[in-house]
Amino acid sequence: MASISWVGLPSSRSSRSTGPTSMPGLPPRRHSSKNKKGAKPRRVYLPAGRKFYDFYTRAVYEGGQTIEIPVTMASIPLFLPEGAIIPLATNQIFNAATESITGLHLICAPDRDGSFTLYDDEGDSYRYEQGAYTETPLTWDDSARVLTIGARQGSYPGMPQSQTYRVVLGDQEQVVTAENGQELQVSF
Question: What is the pTM assigned to this prediction?
Fold first, then answer.
């Protein structure tokens, strides 16, 4: 796990040497282990040059520092770097062959422009190797406070004709549905 902590930030020497509890950056609010019985503090390095948002509490931390976060067996330190767009399924999937995602959370971290390409395919075949998949560009424009869910590109057999997104920015959230892969803009 320690090597993963610096893959996206290879110039950050500190993130390479702080050990397996130093995962910088990554995905709204579930629970905080801050006051949980048995929580133990763990040191987490946040690389310099950007802000980070605590995934669970949405507290903001400046990069370039090591912080202590209480951790239990049921929680891990999880931070979003500014400008991140993190997609999460709204339902839990145990078997991609028999279940499908019913909606997506798109968690956006403000204070910097960001982008992400959302990939989807059948989930139970190798037809993606022949081009049976879709990509949907997601772009966060921080100055305009707008998330653009771009037009879906590509196709695969049985793909859903509509997709519901629950777009989350801090404590604000909006639910939108894209029909037939059309482009949508969500303003905050």
Answer: 0.77
